[in-house]
Amino acid sequence: MSEQEGTTFVQWRERVHTESDGGNPQMRLIMMVAAAVVVAGILVGTIVLMLS
């Protein structure tokens, strides 16, 4: 993939930041909870795999 193709991380981050400014605060909370659940799942899975 060349430099001009796709979206760079900086462009993606700016777009997410712009959309979240005027966005729905409830959706932001849902996304934060979802991220926390994913992180917790990864940690629990890692611990289970290490103990088995």
TrEMBL record:
<protein>
    <submittedName>
        <fullName>Uncharacterized protein</fullName>
    </submittedName>
</protein>
<keyword id="KW-0812">Transmembrane</keyword>
<keyword id="KW-1133">Transmembrane helix</keyword>
<feature type="transmembrane region" description="Helical">
    <location>
        <begin position="29"/>
        <end position="51"/>
    </location>
</feature>
<keyword id="KW-0472">Membrane</keyword>
